[in-house]
Specification:
about 20% strand; Ubiquitin-like (UB roll); alpha+beta
């Protein structure tokens, strides 16, 4: 099982508490994890990725194993620790300011 940790506003929207556990077939990638997440929680469609382009929203970041994976290709395999459930895939709302 893949563990996903969402920020509070997205957990509220999806009506979940704590981590979400997903089953992903095949290679575990950002795309496969987010596809499974949106399939299980349709209310999240369009919040993390754009509806039409499927690109990551500008103020959403992805982290795993202490690494910022936000600019990695969507089909690049995630670290083995994420794929085997040892570490969560984190979806984080970025903060901007000046």
């Amino acid at each position: 099982m893949i563990r996903v940790l969402l920020p509070l506003p997205l957990r509220t929207l999806a009506r979940v508490e704590g981590e979400v556990e997903l089953s992903v077939e095949g290679v575990v990638t950002q795309r496969s994890v987010l596809d499974a997440l949106e399939a299980l929680y349709p209310a999240l469609c369009g919040t993390i990725r754009d509806h039409s382009t499927r690109a990551r929203r500008p103020f959403v970041r992805f982290f795993a194993c202490g690494q910022d994976l936000s600019h990695e290709p969507a089909d690049a395999p995630l670290p083995d620790e994420v794929a085997n459930g040892q570490e969560p895939f984190l979806v984080v709302g970025a903060i901007a300011g000046g």
